[in-house]
């Protein structure tokens, strides 16, 4: 089974990718948090640092681009190609209000005529340069029935993979994924399909396999992988319980690496607290220590709280 790591802005950066890849492995593709190209600026210095090949050695990284302008996409694709990337992902799924008000991400799914013109331009470029473009999409913006027309559009282009998060924009990440629409995609999408959404355990995956009568390979997980870093080992069938020895190594590696690249200390603590919002589900009975950790304003306070948890 191939497993992809979904991009989470501010979380799955090169520091996380390197630590996870070294300690756990099992990720066949990492997708970068989106690059948002602007006029005469294919990527910011921070974005460039995150996807720089020297910061991602031994990692199969696919840069993701978020834009509704084909010229901006192509400018970024040229920059990425010059860095050695031959596969790029288009973000048509981000539900963020700040993104959608600009017509990007999931909002672009409403503009089917403009989307078709956009895809025609970027795939004409990619085919001339030998670059693969995959797409990460939702079912639509406000109505899942939009997905039927979107499939017709996607089938018109050489999409290398279609990663489907079976929710609409207004669902955000709430409620159950609309699995019946992914079942429809299995029958009607011409390119390789990837399922993404609410895979938090091996049981979740087995339920999906039963629902779709399909092995679902590849799959993509983001919040599930962050919440339980041992998830991929469980999906591969190599363990059944969370490996807390590896977890402690991951925590300590991230903590020390963030200290190297971030300052002052409070910024490191903000970053670690963000991770603990996911990790806390692993620690029943440690709610008091986690609450103390979330309030820590000094390194010593944070470390004492971690000792109480781990």
Features:
9-stranded parallel sheet; 14 helices; single chain; alpha/beta; 310 residues; TIM Barrel
Could you characterize what this model shows?
The protein is an alpha/beta fold and 310 residues long. It folds into two domains: 3-236, Aldolase class I (TIM Barrel); 262-309, no CATH class. 47% of the residues lie in helices and 13% in strands. The protein has helices at 14-23, 45-51, 70-82, 97-100, 112-129, 146-154, 179-188, 202-212, 223-227, 231-236, 244-261, 265-279, 287-295, 299-309; strands at 3-5, 29-31, 61-62, 64-65, 87-92, 132-140, 162-168, 193-196, 219-221. The longest helix has 18 residues, at 112-129. The mean pLDDT is 97.
CATH topology group of the largest domain: TIM Barrel
Question: What best-fitting shape do the alpha-carbon axes yield?
Answer: globular
Order of helices and strands: EHEHEEHEHHEHEHEHEHHHHHH
The number of strands is: 9
Percent helix: 40-55%
Number of domains: 2
Please name the fourth-level CATH homologous superfamily of the largest domain. Answer: Aldolase class I
Per-chain topology:
Blueprint: E1 3-5, H1 14-23, E2 29-31, H2 45-51, E3 61-62, E4 64-65, H3 70-82, E5 87-92, H4 97-100, H5 112-129, E6 132-140, H6 146-154, E7 162-168, H7 179-188, E8 193-196, H8 202-212, E9 219-221, H9 223-227, H10 231-236, H11 244-261, H12 265-279, H13 287-295, H14 299-309
Parallel strand pairs: 1-2, 1-9, 2-3, 4-5, 5-6, 6-7, 7-8, 8-9
């Amino acid at each position: 089974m191939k497993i992809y790591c979904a991009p989470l802005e501010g979380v799955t950066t090169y520091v996380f990718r390197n630590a996870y890849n070294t300690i756990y492995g099992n990720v066949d593709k990492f997708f970068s948090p989106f690059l948002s190209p602007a006029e005469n600026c294919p990527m910011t210095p921070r974005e460039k640092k995150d996807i720089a090949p020297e910061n991602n050695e031994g990692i199969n990284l696919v840069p993701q681009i978020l834009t509704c302008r084909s010229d901006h996409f192509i400018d970024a694709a040229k920059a990425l190609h010059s860095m050695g990337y031959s596969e790029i992902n288009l973000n048509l799924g981000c539900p963020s209000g700040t993104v959608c008000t600009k017509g990007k991400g999931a909002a672009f799914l409403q503009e089917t005529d403009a989307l078709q013109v956009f895809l025609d331009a970027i795939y004409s470029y990619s085919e001339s340069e030998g670059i693969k473009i995959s797409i990460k999409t939702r079912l639509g913006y406000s109505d899942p029935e939009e997905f039927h027309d979107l499939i017709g559009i996607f089938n018109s282009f050489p999409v290398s993979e279609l990663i489907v998060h079976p929710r609409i924009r207004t669902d955000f990440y709430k409620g159950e994924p609309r699995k019946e629409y992914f079942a429809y995609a299995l029958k009607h999408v011409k390119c390789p399909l990837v399922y993404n959404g609410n895979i938090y355990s091996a049981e979740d995956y087995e339920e999906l396999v039963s629902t779709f009568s399909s092995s679902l390979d590849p799959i993509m997980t983001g919040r599930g992988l962050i919440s339980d870093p041992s998830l991929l080992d469980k999906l591969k069938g190599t363990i059944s319980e969370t490996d807390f020895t590896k977890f402690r190594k991951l925590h300590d590696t991230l903590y020390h690496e963030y200290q190297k690249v971030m300052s002052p200390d409070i910024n490191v603590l903000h970053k670690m607290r963000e991770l603990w919002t996911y990790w806390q589900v692993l620690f029943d009975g440690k709610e008091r220590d986690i609450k103390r950790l979330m309030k820590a304003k000094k390194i010593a306070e944070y470390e004492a709280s971690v000792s109480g948890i781990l």
